[in-house]
Structures are given as C-alpha cells and as structure tokens.
Amino acid sequence: MDALDEIKGFLACETPDLWIQAALANQDILLIDHAHCEKKAASTAMRLMFRYVDRVDLLNKMSRLAREELIHFEQVLAIMQERGVVYTHLSSARYAGGMLKKVRTYEPGHLIDLLIVGAFIEARSCERFAKLAPFLDDELAKFYRSLLKSEGRHYQDYLGLAEEYAGEPIEDRIQVFREVEQNLVESDDDEFRFHSGKPTFMA
C-alpha cells in the first residue's frame, strides 16, 4: 500500500466532486487559501515546539515540518506572483476550528488529540492535492503532485507521534476525529476554502 492509499484508508470519505468544481472555478482563492494553510501549518508546528520542549522526537519532526511548510508557502507565493494573484487576508475555513472543538483540555490527552488533528489536516490536504491535480494546468498539477510526498510524511509524523506518546491504542480517539472530519467535508458550506465542505453555491 502506498502513502496515498494509506491516507485514503485513514479518511472516512473522499472530497466531494462539488468541491473540485468549486476549486476549479475559484483558483485564485484556492491559491490564496493554500498559502495561508502552509503558513498556519508552520505556525502550528512551532507552537508545539514551544509548548512541549521536553519531547525531543517532536522537536525534531516539527522543526523539519515547519521548514518544509514555509518552503511550500514561498512556492505558492511565487506561483501567485507569476499569475498576478494578490496575496490577501481570507476568513478561516470552519474545518480546523471544528476539529479542535473535540480536543481534550488535559495532558497527555491534549497533545495526543492535537497530533491526531494534525494528521487529519495533512491527510486531507494530501487527498485534495491528488484529486485536484488531474484537472489543473501543467504547472499547478506538477506542483501539487510534488507536495504529495512531503504532506504524506507529515501525516505519518503526526500520527506516529500520537501513537508514541499515548502508549496505548488510540483508534477510539482517531474515530472521534474521523467522524467530525467527515461531517465537515461532506456537509454544506457557503464559502470556498482549501478545507471547506460541500459548496452550496455549486449545487
């Protein structure tokens, strides 16, 4: 099983076709929000590094992840500049906030849940890159396919750390977030973002 097949098995559902249609019809917003996502991913990794300074494996993996996400951020900005797309503020998708509502407030449950959420975010990003690529122009398709390997590794890093620090099976917690994630992806959404749900305006 390759990494993409593993990720598809980890997620409860595929991205709806309506989201793909919305992405193709809103490629400027897709790129702008993608840039925001890469920046937020780097920030999330850094926050974990500052909060959990005694976890050496986490520090090493999150340091590498943050560097890679910032490189991706720069690459998206370069593509936007080539295409005349202005980087601007966008309201956040409901996706990450919806996932974080289920995160436990006590340790080590808090850390384990944050890592599981990170795994789902990276897995969904990877799945959407792969699903979008066949419909994009050659440059953007090549770029999105190039991200699959690193995003797949980020998913594995987050999930592996969650399993390591739990010291016990975490499938029950994974299933909690799997159900939340599926609902966020498949339910109606009135705005388009990289991690938005099923767009009502394309129905």
TrEMBL record:
SUPFAM superfamilies the UniProt entry points to: Ferritin-like
The record's CDD domains line, in alphabetical order, gives: MiaE
Q: Pfam families from the xrefs?
A: MiaE
* PANTHER family named in the record: TRNA 2-(METHYLSULFANYL)-N(6)-ISOPENTENYLADENOSINE(37) HYDROXYLASE (PTHR42637:SF1), TRNA-(MS[2]IO[6]A)-HYDROXYLASE (PTHR42637)
Q: What is this protein called?
A: tRNA isopentenyl-2-thiomethyl-A-37 hydroxylase MiaE
Q: From which organism does this entry originate?
A: Neptuniibacter pectenicola
Highest lineage ranks of the organism? Bacteria, Pseudomonadati, Pseudomonadota, Gammaproteobacteria, Oceanospirillales
